[in-house]
Design goal:
The structure holds 2 protein chains of 2 kinds.
Chain A: H1 9-35, H2 43-54, H3 63-98, H4 110-124, H5 129-151, H6 161-184, H7 187-197, H8 206-225, H9 227-232, H10 237-242, H11 247-269, H12 275-287, H13 291-315, H14 324-342
Helix pairs in contact in A: 1-2, 1-3, 1-13, 2-3, 3-8, 3-11, 3-12, 3-13, 4-5, 4-6, 4-11, 5-6, 5-11, 8-11, 12-13, 13-14
Chain B: E1 3-12, E2 15-24, E3 30-34, H1 41-48, E4 56-61, E5 64-65, H2 71-77, E6 78-81, H3 93-99, H4 113-125, H5 141-154, E7 159-163, H6 171-183, E8 187-191, H7 195-201, E9 204-209, E10 212-217, H8 219-222, H9 225-232, E11 236-240, E12 247-251
Parallel strand pairs in B: 3-8, 3-9, 6-7, 7-8
Antiparallel strand pairs in B: 1-2, 1-4, 4-5, 9-10, 11-12
Classes of the chains: A mainly alpha, B alpha/beta.
Organism (chain B): Kushneria pakistanensis
InterPro entries (chain B): AAA+_ATPase (IPR003593), ABC_transporter-like_ATP-bd (IPR003439), P-loop_NTPase (IPR027417)
Protein name (chain B): Sugar ABC transporter substrate-binding protein
Chain lengths: 347, 262
């Protein structure tokens, strides 16, 4: 009998294979996202342009194609991938810390808080530019987080309370957002904001890619360092503490990372719901509950899902694009209902 | 002495739950914590393993105050089995028992041979080795409790604290869990409700009343009719059982309070 229990060579190889497969699928999905659009660009051109951009090749390409790829579609696909990855990661972290299968940034009202913060910057004109908006969204997300955690004090004894607190928090921040919009925004601003509240990848450019990567990559590394600590939360906070986990510090760090990632994503692309809910469950189904595998799996599947959702949002209606939040909600809401239906009654 | 409490108090939300409790646990013994609901058994266990900070008094491990030890150091010498703890996660028996190695592994260290040995021994001690791949949600209450004990044993603790380990179990499984605990060479402190089972399986008993120690010592010295009347308000006859040689408490029907008889 082998005693190298947690990952025999065979299983480790399998998981490495899955990661390679997911990366390949992600690359293909992003290539498709770059190809598909009002002006169709052949896949081969996409890969050649990518080679040119990376400086490994020098294919002669249509300059319009190359500039569409470089200036618009590649940055958009990268931000979509980062957002999907980041939101799915946040969902996995929150579900573990709060021991609730329904926990995710959108359901907990963190996205709503970030929206309120961002709308205050956009409409009330506090600050300006990408950093100003991100900062507003970040402060809004932190505020929402604080409100939800304060409302759900003692959530360790009743994991469902945090969801109710999230509902209350969402309502509060959505009301504040609506208040700011209806009292201060011009008609044109309102149209822009409504589209943005449902998620919109239309405006992203290269600085957004830099910001998204700068948040998601360190965020992922930090979360992965805490993978084992998250496993220890399986039977609750006290059980984790009894296993030697500094529960307060771990919660503080991971909540801060989650709030930072969510806030950055929302400030760039608006509130996109249900990605953080659906993807960790799908990932758990494939690789199991251990976080050292679950977190990378959530990251990759989240990235793939969001890139595909972006493609769907652009092609589902002729000559018009649907807000991406609508697409993710159409997939996510039924899954939410399914999880609610399957949830085991508390003992 | 392994764990000692020196005049420990704990209050929460303005209510004093544990009141000036002193006790000393002798290594290798099985100690039963008895007392009515709300007498502070669970709270005292949580104080003893450092999950709650005392509001007064001192807890020491081999004369070292618990505050000076890190969470991980405490987890390496003391394990806690909570009352019917469960999870929504789709974990297997092996996943749960492996959690016991958490305090022995650093953030980046891999799984080592000694971790496997500890997990295998723990599984064998509770007789769950053959069912390691079984899903948590398919286990019975008694099996779950055995897996929790295996997880705690995988921590390689010197002391094991158990909070009502037989709660919600039928009598067969209660006896099975207590016999299992009794067999362990580890020092055990467990909160129990059943006085007869406590008399059968514990070397020492601590009887709590409203957060205070009403009596402590051998079952023979703690379980007396007067004390049970005082602590639980129940009339009893206590005798040594001719069948198993331990004390046996017979509960007598309660007389109707005056005014309810007619």
């Amino acid at each position: 009998m082998s005693l190298t229990a947690p990952g025999t060579r065979h299983r480790q190889g399998l998981h490495l294979g899955l990661i390679v497969l997911a990366l390949a699928v992600l690359t293909l999905a992003m290539a498709l996202a770059v190809s598909i659009g009002e002006i169709h660009i052949p896949l081969a051109t996409t890969f050649k342009a990518l080679g040119n951009a990376l400086g490994v090749s020098d294919y002669p390409l249509d300059r319009i194609h190359e500039s569409i790829i470089r200036e618009y579609r590649l940055s958009r696909a990268l931000v979509a991938a980062c957002c999907g990855a980041g939101l799915a990661l946040c969902g996995a972290i929150l579900q573990a810390l709060l021991r609730n299968p329904l926990a995710e940034p959108y359901v907990l009202g963190i996205s709503a808080g970030a929206s309120t913060g961002a709308v205050c910057i956009m409409v009330l004109g506090v600050g300006g530019g990408v950093i100003g908006l991100s900062l507003g969204a970040f402060l809004g997300a932190l505020g929402a987080f604080a409100v939800v955690l304060a409302l759900s004090r003692g959530a360790s004894t009743s994991p469902n309370r945090i969801i109710l607190a999230g509902v209350a928090g969402s309502q509060l921040f959505n009301a504040l957002t609506a208040w700011v919009i209806s009292t201060s925004a011009s008609a044109e601003q309102v149209r822009g904001i409504m589209f943005w509240l449902l998620g919109n990848l239309g405006g992203v450019r290269w600085p957004d890619v830099t910001l998204a990567l700068a948040v998601v990559i360190p965020g992922f590394v930090i979360c992965l360092l805490f993978a084992r600590a998250l496993d220890a939360f399986t039977f609750g906070q006290d059980a984790a503490a009894a296993l030697g986990i500094p529960v307060g510090a771990v919660r503080l760090i991971l909540f801060a990372v989650t709030a930072l990632m969510t806030a950055t994503m929302v400030s760039m692309v608006g509130a996109i719901g249900f990605v953080g809910l659906v993807i960790p469950h799908a990932a758990r189904f494939i690789v199991g509950p251990a976080h050292v595998r679950l977190l990378p799996a959530s990251l990759l599947i989240g990235a793939i899902f969001m890139v595909l959702a972006d493609i769907v949002s652009r092609v589902i209606l002729p000559n018009q694009s649907l807000p991406i939040g609508v697409v993710t909600a159409l997939v996510g809401a039924p899954v939410f209902a399914m999880i609610l239906y399957r949830a085991k009654p508390p003992l | 002495m392994s764990i000692q409490a020196h005049g420990v108090s704990w209050s929460t939300a303005g209510r004093l739950i544990v009141d000036d409790v002193s006790l000393a646990i002798t290594p290798g013994e099985t100690v039963g914590l008895l007392g009515p609901n709300g007498s502070g058994k669970s709270s005292l266990l949580r104080l003893l393993c450092g999950l709650r900070r005392t509001t007064g008094g001192l807890i020491t491990f081999d004369d070292t105050p618990i505050e000076t030890l890190g969470r991980r150091d405490v987890a390496r010498r003391l394990a806690l089995v909570e009352q019917s703890a469960t999870t929504d996660a789709d974990v297997t028996v092996l996943d749960v028992v492996r959690l016991g190695r958490t305090p022995w592994r650093s953030m980046l260290s891999g799984w080592r041979e000694e971790d496997s040995v500890a997990v295998e021994q723990a599984l064998a001690q509770v007789g769950m080795g053959a069912r390691r791949h079984q899903n948590w949600h398919t286990l019975s209450g008694g099996e779950r409790q055995r897996v929790h004990i295996a997880r705690a044993l995988a921590q390689r603790p010197r002391e094991l604290l158990l909070d009502e380990p037989t709660n919600h179990l039928d009598i067969q499984h209660q006896l099975e869990i207590l016999a299992l605990v009794r067999r362990l060479s580890t020092t055990c402190v467990m909160a129990l409700h059943d006085l007869n089972l406590a008399a059968m399986f514990c070397d020492q008993l601590v009887l709590l009343k409203e957060g205070r120690v009403a009596a402590a010592g051998t079952p023979e010295s703690v379980l007396t009719c007067e004390r049970i009347r005082d602590v639980y308000g129940v009339e009893t006859v206590i005798e040594r059982s001719p069948h198993h040689g331990c004390l046996h408490v017979h509960y007598l029907p309660q007389k109707s309070p005056v005014g309810m008889s007619d």
